[in-house]
Structure formats: C-alpha cells, structure tokens
Design brief:
The complex is a heterodimer. Chain A is α/β, with parallel strands linked by helices. Chain A is built from ten helices and ten strands. Chain A has a domain of 176 residues: P-loop containing nucleotide triphosphate hydrolases (Rossmann fold, 3-Layer(aba) Sandwich), CATH 3.40.50. Chain A has a six-stranded mixed beta sheet, with helices on both faces. Chain A has a four-stranded antiparallel beta sheet with strand order 2-1-4-5, covered by helices on one side. In chain A, a hairpin with a 2-residue loop joins strand 9 and strand 10. The termini of chain A are far apart. Chain B has a two-stranded antiparallel sheet. Chain B has a single domain, classed as ABC transporter involved in vitamin B12 uptake, BtuC. Chain B is mainly α. Chain B has 14 helices and two strands. Chain B starts with a helix and ends with a helix. The chains are: A alpha/beta, B mainly alpha. At the A-B interface, helix 2 and helix 3 of A face helix 7 and helix 8 of B.
Chain lengths: 253, 323
C-alpha cells in the first residue's frame, strides 16, 4: 500500500536456539495509532529493536517510507524520521530534563539556543514543564517515562515507536498519560506502541497486532483481538478459551 | 555566557600577575600548574565530557613532543610552525586509536587498557627507532629568541601555556554549549539512548579523541620547548597519563573549571610535600594516589562538585524564600 509508513515482511531473529521473532509481516499506515501486544517474552521488544536497527534480522526486510532500511544503524533511522523509546527508561542522568530533551531536538536543530527552546515546547506537550531544570536522575518513574517520550518527540519523528511508556505507572498516572499519547498522534505523528496496559490499548489503538512466542497470532481492532480465542489462550494458557466459554454459558443459563 | 566572562577574567588576572611578578618561584609554579592544567583539560575532553577513560594519554603527549622536537632538529622547521604540526599529528594518532577501539565498541576498562597498551607500544618504538634518538633522547639546541619559541625569561612560557589553557577552557565551554558537546555528553551518559534519537556515537567519540589528543600534543610540544629534552620514558611513560587523569578527576570531570582547579590543588600539595620531605623521588605520585582515593571515596564529582552543590542548595533555598 502506498500510504504504509512502515512495512515489515518476513522478519525473523533467533538468539541461539530461541526463535525470538519468526516470520513477522505487518504494515503500519501513515497517521495511524496502532499497538503491538502480547504476553511477556513474546518478542515485542526484539521486534522493535529489529525495526529501529538496534538488532540485525536473520531474515526479512524493513521498509520505511518506501525505503529499504533493513539493519540500518539506529541513528540513521532516527534521521529518516523513526524514533524509538525504551521500556527500561534511559535518561542522560547527569543532565537536566531540558538538556535531555535538547539532545533529541539537536537532530534537526544545530543551534543550541533554538534546541533548548524547542525542548521547553516539547516538555509542555508531555507535561514536564515544571521539572525542566531538574536533573533527570531526580525524576520519578512517571517523570522518566515522560522524559523518554519527550526526548523522542523532540527529534520531530514521522513514526514514534513507544515501548511500554505506561508500564510501572499507577492508574492515575496512566490516565494522565493517555491523552498525552493521543495528543501526539493527533499532531500528525504515526505511533506504534507496545503496551501491556489494556485500558490504554482499548482506548487508543485503532489496530492491534498480537505477538506470541515470536509469531503474529492475531490482528484487528482492539475489540476483535481481545475476544479472539488464540489471544486469550496465549495470555491465559491452553484450554482457557473453552473454559471461559463454558463458564459464560453456565451463567447465561 | 557567564562562564565565558570568567574565562576572560581568569586569563587577564594570570597575565597581569605574570606581567608584574619578578619572582622566579612564583612564575615557575604558575608555569607548571598551568601545564598540569592543560594535561587535565585535554584528558577531560575525552574522559570527562565523553566518558571514555583513557589510561594512556601520554600517547598523544609523547607524539606531540617528538613531532615538536624532530620537526625542528631534523626538518629545520620553525617551532611556531612545528606546534600546529604537533597538534595535528597527535590528533591523527587519536583518530587512529579511536578508529580501532570505537569501531569495535570498546568501552570502559577495555578502552583504558587499549590506550595504555598503545602508549607502551609507542614507548618501545621510540626506544628502538633511530629518529627519536632512542634511549638517549633528543636534546633541543638552546637558541633563545621569541622567533625560536625559547624565551629569555619564564614569562614567555607562562604566556604561551596560558594561551593554550585559555583555548582549552574555551573549547570546554563550547562543549557545554553546543550541539557537539550535547551529543558527546549524551553518548557518555547512555549510548543506546543517544543512538535512538539520532546521535552517531562513533563520529562523536572520534571528534572528542581528536580534540583531546590535539591538546595533549600541544602540552607535549610545550614540554619540549620548556625543558629542551625528551626521551621515550618522559614522552610515553605512565607518569603523564596519570597526572592528566588524576588532576581531572580530583577537580571534577566533565566540568569547565574542574581540571584547572584539580591541577592547581595537586601542584600546591606536591610543592608542600616537596618542602617537607625534600626531593624524595616520586613522592608527588604517592600524594596523587592518596588524594585520588580520598576524592573518589568522598567527592566523586570532584572539587568543582562541591561548588555546584553549594550553588544548587543556595538556589533552592533562595527559590523557596522567593515563593
């Protein structure tokens, strides 16, 4: 399709005997807000690493905006407009929040003062303005997640890959973060997120891919995917879907 | 901007004191303290701002020193022309070592060991090839004149080293206030995070090692002009490497003023102990070792770190009063 920003085809990666990602193909339409879900160890983060160039795939191709970027270095992908965040937040601890975000801004803005100014704008978008001059090391987990997001956003990406920006947050913090992600997507950035927090996925994503044991097992709207039997079994174990169905039938009777 | 202003004041004060002073002891102290500061500043560019701890910075120092000496003695080149050659040559050696180590992603203690090994290799090479004068070393002929970068009084050397230290201060300030500096510090703090937002760590580290090596080479060239002698042990021995990194760590790595401060403190300490213990050879290294241990244990951010904490506390309490 012409308007697919990111296309994966037949992507595979093994670590020794472990097939982390097997023959995954998917296409992310430009301007969409989509999600990748799956149980722990399904290979979601590995798939992100393959897309963004941190890990070289054994097979398959990655295309971004029509260009083949398979195994291209991450900084070049960021320059093209694809930026990822990390599940385990990685702040530049010795620097202030403003300086952290400015590093991202510098990708497109060589001037220091302009980059710092841009950093305050981005901080405002993710609700970090009050912490601008704090050292990044002093932020709470929620603050660090926002910083991770802000720094990526400051690179002015076309596609943002968000790796569990909601993990480790309390319900209130999640509720505050959801509109932030929504705002980014509404601002014209294509967003693909890995997420465990189903509340967020149901709320935000237009389309969901489900990864289990390295393979895509289902895709569709959040509603469709969550009632898919294979998805339920991947999360809750073999035979669960049948038991749930039986229980539901009993209740109805 | 404020820091730029302080750099100007610092240079003006040292220049003024040098201009009016007739004390040989004082001028000697200023020369050697500034020289130590330059070593530390050079190390700080790569180690402090870039987080790549080198244990063999003598590699660049010795290269600069030998280029300065050989260009004059065998090439008949004016020392003022030789100085930029020494800087460029040391920077090139930096690019060579950096190219090899950073290409293969060497970090931390591995990088430190590689730099140490390279310094040793160069020391052994300098001992065995003819054009370095081998173990005998090179003695620069004495020809005092401004055009020959050999000054009749100590003052000339102070002005020369002051100019180099001021330039290094300006470069450090630039690292704090530029895109390249921001990238360098980002790579130091978290390389993967930096890559994800578009920073090419290899290029950034290469830039830092070239700059760092260049300043170290300038220090080597200065050494040759002052002492008019160089041999493989002085050029590539570990003493210079240790001096550079201890002064930077004691003063506060990754700061503009830390290396200068650290060099000053260490030199005062070394002078005091020399007066107390007489010329016990190597006593200053013992002192450096003790100071380094104390600093790393109690002041991991160095002496400059105390100042920063005080300022931060003062600002915080001031902010609270203001509310």
């Amino acid at each position: 399709m012409a308007n697919d920003l990111l296309q994966l085809s037949g992507l595979s990666k093994s670590f020794g005997g472990l097939k982390a990602v097997q023959n995954v193909s998917l296409a992310v339409p430009e301007g969409s807000l989509t999600a990748l879900i799956g149980p722990n160890g399904a290979g979601k983060t590995t798939l992100f690493a393959l897309m963004s160039g941190f890990v070289r795939p054994d097979a398959g191709t990655v295309r971004f905006a029509g260009q083949d970027i398979t195994a291209q270095a991450p900084h070049l992908n960021a320059r093209l407009g694809m930026t990822r965040t990390f599940q385990i937040v990685q702040p530049f601890a010795a620097q202030t929040v403003r300086e952290n975000i400015a590093v991202g801004a510098h990708l497109r803005e060589p001037n220091r003062r302009a980059a710092l100014a841009l950093a305050s704008d981005v901080a405002a978008r993710v609700g970090l303005s009050p912490q601008l001059d704090k050292p990044a090391a002093d932020l709470t987990v929620a603050g660090r997640k926002r910083l991770e997001l802000a720094r990526a956003l400051a690179t002015q990406p076309r596609l943002l890959l968000l790796d569990e920006v909601l993990a480790g947050l309390n319900p209130q913090e999640i509720a505050e973060m959801i509109p932030v992600v929504r705002g980014i997507a509404d601002g014209g950035v294509t967003v693909l997120m890995i997420e465990h927090v189903m509340q967020a996925v149901m709320n935000l994503a237009e389309h969901v891919w489900v990864l289990a044991q390295g393979q895509l097992i289902a895709e569709g709207s959040p509603g469709v995917v969550t009632s898919d039997e294979r998805v339920i079994e991947a999360y809750l174990g073999h035979g669960t879907a049948a038991r749930l169905r039986a229980a539901a039938a009993k209740e109805a009777a | 901007m404020k820091q730029l202003w302080t750099i100007g004041v610092f240079a003006a004060i040292v220049a003024a004191v040098t201009g009016v002073s007739d004390s040989g002891v004082l001028l000697n102290f200023v020369t050697m303290a500034l020289y130590a500061a330059l070593l530390a500043q050079a190390w700080n560019i790569l180690g402090g701002f870039g987080g790549q701890f080198s244990f063999g910075h003598a590699l660049f120092f010795g290269t600069g020193a030998y280029i300065q000496a050989i260009a004059q003695m065998q090439g008949g080149i004016n020392p003022w022309v030789a100085l930029p050659m020494a800087v460029a040559g040391s920077a090139l050696v930096g690019l060579f070592v950096g190219g090899l180590s950073f290409r293969y992603g060497l970090k931390g203690s591995y990088f430190a060991l590689v730099t140490l090994a390279f310094a040793e290799v160069f020391r052994i090479l300098a001992l065995s090839v003819p054009f370095t004068g081998a173990g005998v070393g090179l003695m620069l002929p004495l020809k005092e004149s401004l055009g020959n970068m050999q000054f009749g009084s100590r003052k000339g050397y102070v002005f020369l080293i002051l100019a180099l230290v001021t330039l290094a201060l300006l470069v450090s300030w630039w690292l704090k206030n530029s895109r390249f500096g921001a990238w360098l510090q980002a790579v130091r703090d978290n390389e993967d995070a930096a890559r994800a937002i578009g920073v090419n760590p290899f290029n950034v580290k290469m830039g830092a090692i070239a700059l760092s090596g260049g300043f170290m080479g300038a220090a080597g060239a200065f050494y040759v002009q002052v002492f008019q002698y160089i041999d493989p042990g002085i050029a590539y021995g570990s003493v210079t490497s240790v001096e550079a990194l201890v002064a930077a760590i004691v003063g506060g790595i990754g700061t503009v003023w830390g290396p200068v401060l650290g060099a000053l403190v260490l030199h005062i300490l070394a002078d005091i102990t020399r007066n107390l213990f007489g010329q016990l050879p190597g006593i200053n290294m013992v002192i450096y070792g003790v100071v380094l241990v104390l600093i790393v244990m109690f002041l991991p951010r160095g002496i400059a770190g105390i100042g920063q904490s005080v300022v931060a506390v003062w600002k915080r309490s001031g902010g609270r009063h203001g509310q």
